[in-house]
Amino acid sequence: MKKFDIIWIIDDDPIYTFGAKRKLKQINISKSVRALDNGKEALEELHHLAITEKSKLPDLILLDINMPHMDGWQFLKELENMSLKVDATVYLVTSSVDPRDIEKARASRHVCGYLNKPLQTENILGILEEVNFKK
Length: 135
Fold this sequence. Notes:
The protein is 45% helix and 22% strand. It is of the alpha/beta class.
């Protein structure tokens, strides 16, 4: 099964991102895992890489909803409006169980799935299997 080259975790909780990075490294599904603190920082980095180093763009983005500066919904809206092509698989990983968030995620063309925190090994392997199946 093909692994991801680059995974980004966009989340403002350093304890969660530490644990998620550790879990992703343990199950060895990616060459590189990077954590970014908020949607604004991630969008700036996506824009920069899309122009300068497309090979460093993420294959998978694990996105939190509630963050300072720019939340997950704002990030997705800006991603849709970007003129540059960013072809990453996006999963929302959140502690929200609000049915409105789930419906909103389903309505986004960029969101492939909705997972509850904490990130579980079976969820990660499911994402990898689903992405490989689509290819």
